[in-house]
Design brief:
Elements: H1 2-85
């Protein structure tokens, strides 16, 4: 009977070791999942920031193009008006194109 009690104690010890191993692995898996979720959230935030910056840059470039087109249109209008005022005389009068 002593040997069967000893065997039972050995089996309990092995079972406890396995349970401890399972707990460690479960904790490691939980930690890894939490880290993955944290990194995923940070990545999502960074993507949003980059998307906002790109949208802002697109808006500013579009605004700049519109401003340049307005400036070019104003220069053309001035040229046409000056030619009309001069009676369509072909004077070699060139307007210096400036940045607006």
């Amino acid at each position: 009977m002593f040997s069967s009690t000893q065997q039972v104690d050995e089996l309990r010890g092995k079972l406890e070791e396995k349970n401890k191993m399972i707990e460690k692995k479960t904790q490691a898996a939980l930690t890894a999942t939490q880290d993955k979720n944290r990194v995923s959230n940070e990545l999502s935030e960074l993507r949003d920031q980059v998307r906002k910056k790109l949208d802002y840059k697109k808006h500013m470039l579009k605004k700049r193009r519109i401003s340049q087109k307005k400036c070019q249109l104003a220069i053309r209008v001035i040229k046409v008006r000056s030619e009309t005022i001069r009676g369509n005389n072909k004077l070699n009068f060139k307007f210096k194109q400036r940045s607006c």
